[in-house]
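Following the same procedure, sequence and fold were stored together, as reproduced here.

>
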Amino acid sequence: MHPIVKPALRRGWRDLSTVQFGVAPAHALVLGPMDTATSSFLTLLDGTRGLPLLREEARRMGLPDGHVDRLLGELTRAGLLDDSTGGGPAADALRERGGAMDRLRADLASLSLQSPEPGGAVARMAARRSMRVRVRGAGRVGAAVASVLAAAGIGRVDVVDGGQVQPWDVAPGGLPAESVGERRDVAARQAVRQAAPGRPDRRPAEPEGAAGLSLVIIAPRDGLDAYAPAPAAAEELIASGTPHLYAGVLEGTGVVGPLVLPGTTACAECLFRQRADHDPTWPRMLAQWRSGTTRQVAACDVALSTSVAGLTAGHALAFLDGEPSACAGARWKAAVPGFEWRSSPIWPHPSCSCGAGASVKGDRPTADEKPHATMAG
């Protein structure tokens, strides 16, 4: 073990014997009392020394026997200590990829705040390399989500879509202007390769089935299919038990969620049944919206779509890293121009065939409300 005080946290002394690690309250911790010799010893915890050398340095500084081990134990319990050589064989393999490792250092520093155990952050990052994610949709949201996931170290990010890139598909972090006219899926996969640390070589396309997928992100270019997703489009995912997350922009509203854990959390059919229970006109209105054809370019504010893509990628990474997801059984919505994100629960429906509602008794309030009625005059 080569201990290192997590460099992501800025250090400051509140007084001569009390040190604060971190600025923002979400991760800040205060330790004390701490004598001058111990505070000087902290500077040696930079990941370049093993335990034998640290114990020897402590003796030279006049610290008593056992002091180093007690200090390291306290720092570990506080979640402040990392191990520059930890994480296991997969982490060692990642460290050997020097260029890729450098690209991921900022992400690793952030992961260290979520991984209390020494070596936990690099172990999580190494685990991402073995994951496979598919993004359905290569519009402003889907292409950006795919690029962010690749940049964050997900080993395989595939994108599925049809048609050609249009000028209005172009967005920062997603499809570049020079891709206009290319096949959407080809252009999106190229953007993924450009974003990925280490720039992996071109690999053959994965089979279309859901087998082996860690997560599917459904980010259709038609925002209605994210706001009111069709249950039939996710039947294979439900049957195979594949987690999937919805995201998109409809008119001036961005939607992230729900994250569907088949058999556990609410699915697209639960959402449809829930809405229909509280608004009997919903199926009729939805059928009209889906059957209507228009030649107009759909509204998709670039700032809103970028915000949706970032939030979607963040929730996806949290799930893939094994953290509880705020999108499981819920979805987040924000509308222009306020951009205020609000979360609404999506309950499993007792009558849905997905099985998540088997234990649900009685009716629960829907996550959406009917539109306000107005009268002209």
